[in-house]
Amino acid sequence: MPKIDGVKQAENIARVLRNAIIEQALPAGSRLPEDSVADQFHTSRSVVREALSMLSTEGLVEHRKNRGAFVAEPVWEEARDLFDLRISLEKIVVARLPEVLTDDQLDRLRAHVATEELARDEGHDSRSIRLGGEFHVALAEMTGSDFFLRYTRELTSRCSVMLALYSRPVSVECGVSEHFEIIDLIAAGKHAQAVLVMERHLFAVVERAMIKPRTRDKASIAEVLAKYKNLP
Fold first, then answer.
1. What count of Cα atoms within 13 Å lies in the side-chain half-sphere of residue 121?
2. Which residues are registered as beta bridge partners of 160?
3. What percent of the chain has pLDDT above 70?
4. Strand ranges, E, within the chain
């Protein structure tokens, strides 16, 4: 039982750090001291190490020899490859969704996109980008395939960081309506059309991005984690 609790703790810490990284509250290059993170979650450094290892697998954290863990610093030259892989995978994900999703699943998707819309309307661009990525992860989860879920989460996390770093401010405006369109097509059983809209949607996301990092205010890791560990 303690082992299971430790795994759940590590997954929760990874979730909090992932959200903070994607929203750029923890900017690229930020150091992630194990002791500071452990203090915030009242846990051991070994549990934090496991969480950082999970994020390293996703490409969000990198370990530097004799220096510890840092938020990864993606370079724009990687973006095209990441999005090409993501587009190919997500077309398959949509095609592999069950012929009929349950009403609960469709309600969950619509409620999630509504939260994206709220974040966009309130001007929280980085949060809207994160929530937009989580919509795609939810679709992968609904295929029932752990393989699709794992790789969609990894690619989406990396792409979301790219968008938070380099996207135009208007890049979040179109995603919400496109997500609603995808849900409506899936609900109507029009999976082939949903695949085409997904492809168009992700290509549009790429086109709306630009090579210009945004300036971010830097907060201490304790301040960031105190905020993010209480968010859903």
1. 8
2. none
3. 89
4. 61-64, 68-71
DSSP category for residue 42: T
What 3-state class would DSSP assign to 167? strand
Q: What is the DSSP string of 63-131?
A: EETTTEEEE----GGGHHHHHHHHHHHHHHHHHHS-SS--HHHHHHHHHHHHHHHHHHHTT-HHHHHHH
Distance CA 26, CA 126 (A): 12
pLDDT of residue 212: 44
- CA pair distance 28, 34, nearest whole angstrom: 17
Q: How many CB atoms lie within 10 A of CB 13?
A: 24
pLDDT tens track for 166-193: 765 544 545 889 999 999 999 999 999 9
Q: What is the pLDDT of residue 81?
A: 86
- What single-letter amino acid sits at 59? G
Give the span between the Cα atoms of 151 and 161, in whole angstroms: 16
DSSP reduced 3-state for 59: coil
Mind listing the pLDDT tens digit for each residue in 122-140? 888 788 888 999 999 999 9
**In this structure, are residues 11 and 49 in contact, taking their beta carbons and an 8 Å threshold?**
no
Distance CA 151, CA 90 (A): 10
Q: What is the mean pLDDT of residues 57-69?
A: 90
